[in-house]
Amino acid sequence: MNTDMRNNPDDDAKLRGVVQFFESLTADSAQHLDCVYATDVSFKDPFNDVRGLPAVTHIFSHMFTQVDDARFVVTTQIVRGDTAFLTWDFLFRMKRFSTAQQCIRGATHLRFAADGRVNFHRDYWDAAEELYEKLPILGGFMRLLKRAVASDAE
User: Fold this and answer.
1) Which residues, 6+ apart, have CB-to-CB distance to 39 below 8 Å?
2) In whole angstroms, what is the distance from residue 2 CA to residue 54 CA?
3) Is residue 133's pLDDT more than 70?
4) Kind of pairing, strands 49-51 and 67-80?
5) Which of 25, 143, 21, 47 is nearest to 91 (CA)?
6) Coil, strand, or helix at residue 99?
7) What is the CATH number of domain 9-126?
8) How many separate helices (H) and strands (E) can be counted in the chain?
9) What digits encode the pLDDT tens for the residues 57-85?
C-alpha cells in the first residue's frame, strides 16, 4: 500500500491553472473554456445538469448576463491525482433588486481527464440560503420557512 501523502507537482500545476482561470474569469474568457474543460465535460450545480463544452460555456456566459462584477475567490484547494476539491466565494452584484455586493459560498469537486483538462465539475452550494434568501419578497418567505422548520425541530 502506498502511504506517500505528497502531491505530484503535475497535479498541483493543473489545479493551479484551473484556479487561476476561475479567479480571472470574465465574460470574454468564458468563451475560451476549452483551455480548462474537456469537450465531453459533465457539469452539475443547483440549477444545471449538462454535458458538453457548449452547454457549460452557455452557463458561464449566462452568468455574466445575470450579474455584474462577478468574480470567484478560491479559499481552499486540494488535489490528489485526477481529483480536486475547491472551496470558493462567488462575489457579484445583482443587476436587479440590489446593487450591494453579494457572496455565495460553495465548493467544487473536479476530476481531470488524461490531458489535464476538467472532465467532471460538480458545484455544491445552498441555493436557498446563499441566493433565494437575498431576494426581495422571496427572501422574506424563505427566512419564514427556515424559522418554521427550525422551531419544529426543537
Assistant:
1) 52, 53
2) 39
3) no
4) unpaired
5) 25
6) coil
7) 3.10.450.50
8) 4, 6
9) 999 999 999 899 999 999 999 999 999 99
Amino acid of residue 112: F
Distance between CA atoms of residues 40 and 33, nearest Å: 12
β-strands 101-112, 118-124: how paired?
Answer: antiparallel
The secondary element (H helix, E strand) that includes residue 84 is strand 83-94
Q: Note the pLDDT tens digit of each residue in 137-153.
A: 555 545 555 566 566 55
Secondary structure E strands in the chain? 37-44, 49-51, 67-80, 83-94, 101-112, 118-124
Contact present, 53 and 37 (Cβ < 8 Å): yes
Which pLDDT band, with edges at 50, 70 and 90, does 1 fall under? Answer: very low
User: What 3-state DSSP class applies to 93?
Assistant: strand
Phi, psi dihedral angles at 141 (to 5 degrees): -65, -45
